[in-house]
Amino acid sequence: MSENALPADRSARSERIAARTRNSDWRKPPRRIETAECITCDSCLRGCPAEFGAIVDRGLDVVIIPELCSGCPACVLECPVDCIYVDEDWSPSDDSLWNLVEFPAETR
């Protein structure tokens, strides 16, 4: 990724956060973490690309904000217990999750 592309990617993430919407161009559904299977190692959080920053720490567990998740497999590849699944039936995130999102993305 070029240095010139990074600010645009961060800006796009910031726009998705402000609008609380998912990019309509993303073809893959977002991912979800099955909390009953998760060991909260945070490997997925560290593995999620900064331009998405879709995974947040919610205290005792980590969750994926579907509006920020492109559906890429980066977190799945990092998970040692295979607890991340495709979420075909995702629903919009509530305020309690959005309050955990770092804004702007430059702080990630």
Automatic annotation (TrEMBL):
Gene3D superfamilies: 3.30.70.20. The keyword Iron-sulfur applies. Residues 29-58, 60-89 form the 4Fe-4S ferredoxin-type domain. Residues 10-28 have a biased composition (Basic and acidic residues). Residues 1-28 are annotated as: Disordered. SUPFAM superfamilies: 4Fe-4S ferredoxins (SSF54862). GO terms for molecular function: iron-sulfur cluster binding; metal ion binding. The keyword Iron-sulfur applies. It comes from the Bacteria. Keywords: Iron, Iron-sulfur, Metal-binding. Pfam families: Fer4_10 (PF13237). This is Putative ferredoxin. It comes from Actinacidiphila reveromycinica. The gene is fdx3.
